């Protein structure tokens, strides 16, 4: 327990009111008591609530009561104590029940059966047959047939036919009438209405001499 002296007391007997410590922290309560000219004594109570640590839990003298100056006021404040950690309960482990082990049944080992060896049967050897050799047949050589040479046919040369020259009629010979006339052994005929040397007549709708 710690005790702290308050303010120096004056001579004579004096009384003061006890301050209200509710809702104050430990340091605030100490300051309130000493400011009133009083002394204090403190103690703790454990709590698992970390928010209450160092706050006033109770006070010895009621707040507002009158005490002699220099009297000691006791109070209790909270002290946070972490709750004990409970270890998890591990259920007992039950070992598994193993069924009885049956050894495997090994079948008897039979020795391998070796079949009797039969010697191979060799067939009789037949000699190969050689066919007779036939000489190759050479076909007779046929000389090539040469076709007879036909000389080219030259067509006979026909001399060009020159038509006889017929003298033209002389247009100025004879009269200008619809009458025939002869000119260098050729019969001519002149059609015209310009003039007549002799008498003219109308024949077939035309004027003739």
Tell me what the structure shows.
This protein is mainly beta. Among the domains are: 15-80, Trypsin Inhibitor V, Chain A (2-Layer Sandwich), CATH 3.30.10.20; 179-208, no CATH class. The chain is built from one helix and nine strands, in the order βαββββββββ. The protein has one helix at 26-35, and strands spanning 15-17, 39-47, 56-59, 66-68, 72-80, 179-183, 186-190, 201-203, 206-208. A hairpin with a 2-residue loop joins β6 (179-183) and β7 (186-190). The chain is elongated and about 210 Å long. The chain starts with 14 loop residues before the first strand and ends with a strand.
Write the layout of secondary structure elements.
Elements: E1 15-17, H1 26-35, E2 39-47, E3 56-59, E4 66-68, E5 72-80, E6 179-183, E7 186-190, E8 201-203, E9 206-208
Parallel strand pairs: 2-5
Antiparallel strand pairs: 1-4, 3-5, 6-7, 8-9
Quick overview of this protein structure:
Helices cover 5% and strands 21% of the residues.
Helix/strand order: EHEEEEEEEE
Q: What is the radius of gyration computed over CA atoms, rounded to a whole number of angstroms?
A: 87 Å
Main sheet specs: 3 strands, mixed
State the CATH class of the domain at 15-80. Alpha Beta
Our measurement of the CA-to-CA distance between the termini, rounded to an integer number of angstroms, reads: 197 Å
Estimate the global geometry from the Cα principal axes. elongated
CATH architecture of the domain at 15-80: 2-Layer Sandwich
Question: Structural class, please?
Answer: mainly beta
Mean pLDDT level: 78
Q: What proportion of the residues form beta strands (DSSP E)?
A: 15-25%
In the predicted model, the low-confidence regions spanning at least 5 consecutive residues are none
Helix content: under 10%
Count of helical segments?
A: 1
CATH topology of the domain at 15-80: Trypsin Inhibitor V, Chain A
Cross-sheet strand order for the largest sheet: 2-5-3
DSSP strand count: 9
């Amino acid at each position: 327990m710690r005790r702290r002296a308050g303010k120096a007391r004056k001579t004579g007997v004096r009384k003061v009111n006890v301050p209200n410590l509710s809702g104050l922290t430990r340091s605030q309560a100490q300051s309130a008591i000493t400011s009133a000219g009083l002394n204090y004594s403190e103690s703790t109570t454990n709590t698992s609530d970390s928010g209450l640590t160092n706050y006033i839990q109770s006070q010895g003298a009621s707040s507002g009561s009158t005490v002699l100056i220099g009297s000691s006021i006791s109070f209790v404040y909270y002290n946070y104590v972490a709750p004990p950690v409970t270890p998890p309960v591990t259920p007992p482990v039950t070992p598994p029940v193993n069924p009885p082990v049956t050894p495997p049944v090994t079948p008897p080992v039979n020795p391998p059966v070796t079949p009797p060896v039969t010697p191979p049967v060799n067939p009789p050897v037949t000699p190969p047959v050689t066919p007779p050799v036939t000489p190759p047949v050479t076909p007779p050589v046929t000389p090539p047939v040469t076709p007879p040479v036909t000389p080219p046919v030259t067509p006979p040369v026909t001399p060009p036919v020159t038509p006889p020259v017929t003298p033209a009629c002389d247009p100025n010979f004879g009269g200008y009438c619809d009458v025939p006339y002869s000119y260098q052994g050729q019969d001519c005929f002149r059609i015209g209405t310009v003039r007549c040397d002799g008498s003219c007549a109308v024949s077939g709708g035309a004027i003739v001499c």
